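User: Could you go from structure to sequence for me? I need the amino acid at each position, not a summary. Structure tokens:
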């Protein structure tokens, strides 16, 4: 609060007489000037709101930037991992179609085989026979079933699993048979089909040839 005091002029007669009976100023005017508190408070509130909004916007921009940076790093890591997996699979020769063109029974297929379900993928592989001689192959001492292995995979783990298949399990070359799981319920067929298409895309990205059963 600002207080202004103004005094009126001493009357001319008193100034001229210089007498002892001089009186104090005849008029004491007190003027009180009140600052605009409401306006100042409103401006302060608006400034606070503005600063808060700016801070939130900066935080939002920073959050988006961090997410974009994290996504970029993740994409780079995924690309590097996929390149490593593809490099390992490149050591497997390209497929020789004449070796499997007449095979239509899954039990007769010797390369890796994928049965795709709604939630998991069953990967069947036939390990190479450690005995290179044909004598006794398939009999009780050397059963084919003993070399057969089945693994339950999550779709996200397919790439790693394919890259880890031993070279001896690819007698036809770099080709995999893919089929919808016959055990899937009818209501799950649309999901199974989407999983099959996703698996085929993953295999193609790895440079693996796909034989889909039944042929489409």
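Assistant: Here is the amino acid at each position, in order:
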């Amino acid at each position: 609060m600002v207080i202004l005091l103004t005094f009126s002029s001493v009357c001319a007669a008193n100034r001229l007489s210089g007498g002892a009976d001089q009186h104090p100023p005849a008029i004491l005017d007190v003027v009180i000037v009140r600052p605009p508190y409401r306006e100042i408070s409103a401006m302060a509130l608006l400034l606070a709101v503005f600063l808060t909004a700016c801070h939130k916007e900066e935080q939002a921009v920073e959050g988006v930037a961090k997410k974009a940076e994290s996504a970029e790093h993740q994409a780079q890591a995924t690309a590097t991992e996929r390149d490593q997996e593809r490099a390992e699979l490149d050591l497997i020769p390209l497929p020789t179609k004449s070796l499997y063109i007449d095979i239509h029974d899954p039990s007769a297929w010797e390369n890796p085989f994928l049965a795709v379900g709604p939630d998991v993928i069953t990967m069947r592989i036939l390990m190479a026979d450690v005995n290179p001689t044909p004598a006794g192959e398939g009999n009780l001492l050397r059963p084919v079933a003993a070399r057969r292995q089945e693994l339950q995979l999550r779709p996200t783990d397919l790439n790693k699993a394919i890259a880890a298949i031993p070279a001896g399990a690819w007698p036809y070359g770099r080709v995999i048979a893919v089929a919808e799981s016959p055990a899937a319920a009818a209501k799950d067929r649309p999901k199974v089909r989407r999983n099959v298409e996703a698996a085929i895309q993953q295999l193609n990205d790895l440079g693996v040839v796909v034989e889909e059963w039944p042929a489409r």
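One structural detail worth keeping in mind: The first strand starts at residue 2 and ends at 7.
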